[in-house]
Amino acid sequence: MDLGITAEALPSDWQTARLLGRIATTAGPVPILIVGGVVYDMTAVAPTVAMLIEQGGLDEARGTRLGTFEALAADDTLDLLSPIDLQCVKAAGVTFAVSALERVIEESARGDPGAAAAVRARLEGVIGVGLQHVVPGSPEAATLKDRLIADGMWSQYLEVAIGPDAEVFTKAPILSTVGWGAEVGIRSDSTWNNPEPEIVIIADSTGKAVGATLGNDVNLRDFEGRSALLLGKAKDNNASCAIGPFIRLFDDAFTLDDVRRAEVELLIEGTDDYCLTATSSMSQISRDPTVLLAQTMSQHQYPDGLALFLGTMFAPTKDRDDPGRGFTHKTGDRVSISTPTLGCLVNRVTTSDLAPPWTFGVSQLMRNLAERGLLSGPGH
């Protein structure tokens, strides 16, 4: 794989972890398993990652051994893709107290970064840090809601932060996500935006969590701040959703408890020598991953499974240029999202109109698999 990727991008214990992903070959996309540091082509078992998961085909003994990870990493005929394919891409928003405050700030500032500092100070004076201790949907949450309404400080973002219903939205179309090393896109007409470093749960069609990976839910603060009805335009743009490098499958050595304990690190390195570091502690999430997954599945079916972004506590308040305007991306920023159990997702920022266009959709995938003879037979 001419990925520029090395073992440093993988989980710290990658040689014993079970990793699921996709590579692009000259023939087309290929699902792979990495077990014991060895890469297996799983195409003969099922031609997509979604089908592998649904059919319970995650047994490397049924695949074709391609070689060690180190050997394949030097193969310049292969490229790493996002590790999901036919899964729906969903995202839970406002799942941390800090991010809830930032969404309220965006809304109150009407998407103007210059007004953010004053709004932030006023909100923190009213709400303080107590929001993170409120259990969503609890009587205490209802009491806090009544007080904030009386103070004229209530917001639709606080509703999903401490109310009974989580915010769950569709982040990206099927097959549109980008993987490790790809460019991520922000709208060229956005002037206030940021990465959102998150853990992404991968679930099958029954809602069972089968693994986890890292994600960047690229966000436009100015668009959503002007109106929550612009969420789709703020969240879903060309190359605006990165996932990877690989899905780590749950087993005895890696469970949902590891996700709950994870510390997600963010590093932004600009070509202007700007540097920002931050940490998102999953222990501070307001709703457990199983609750978010259950709410996502409550009134909908996902026959090919789903990927669910769990949200972030990253609050990009460190000024980049003018005092009080906080952070916003610049073209060329290198974004690294990491945690030891899942590795490191690295992408560079461009604008969505300049990022490689998304051209390989469901029709193209089905046509490619048919031409390769992969849509027939008992396994397919």
Structural overview:
The longest helix is centred in the N-terminal third of the chain and has 12 residues, at about 95-110. The strands form three sheets. Strands 1, 2, 3, 4, 5, 6, 7, 10, 11, 13 and 16 form an eleven-stranded mixed β-sheet that branches. Helix content is about 25%, strand content about 25%. The radius of gyration is 21 Å and the shape is globular. The model has no long low-confidence stretch (mean pLDDT about 90). It contains eleven helices and 18 strands. With about 375 residues, the protein is an alpha+beta fold. Strand 10 and strand 11 form a beta hairpin.
**Which geometry do the CA atoms define?**
globular
Radius of gyration: 21 Å
The string of secondary-structure elements, in order, is EEEHEHEEHHHHEEEEEEHHEHEEHEEEH
- Counted by DSSP, the helix tally is 11
Helix content: 10-25%
Report the biggest beta sheet as strand number plus sense, adding barrel if it closes: 11 strands, mixed
- End-to-end separation in angstroms reads 26 Å
What average pLDDT do the residues reach? 89
SS-derived structural category: alpha+beta
User: What is the tally of beta strands?
Assistant: 18
The parts where pLDDT drops under 50 for at least 5 residues are none
Any descriptors?
380 residues; alpha+beta; eleven-stranded mixed β-sheet; five-stranded mixed β-sheet; 23% helix
Helices and strands in order:
Elements: E1 18-24, E2 29-35, E3 38-41, H1 49-54, E4 64-68, H2 69-72, E5 79-80, E6 88-93, H3 97-108, H4 116-127, H5 139-150, H6 156-162, E7 167-172, E8 183-186, E9 193-194, E10 197-203, E11 209-217, E12 219-220, H7 221-226, H8 231-235, E13 241-249, H9 256-261, E14 263-269, E15 275-281, H10 289-297, E16 306-309, E17 334-339, E18 343-351, H11 362-371
Parallel strand pairs: 6-16, 8-18
Antiparallel strand pairs: 1-2, 1-5, 1-13, 2-3, 3-4, 6-7, 9-12, 10-11, 10-16, 11-13, 14-15, 14-17, 17-18
Helix pairs in contact: 3-4, 3-6
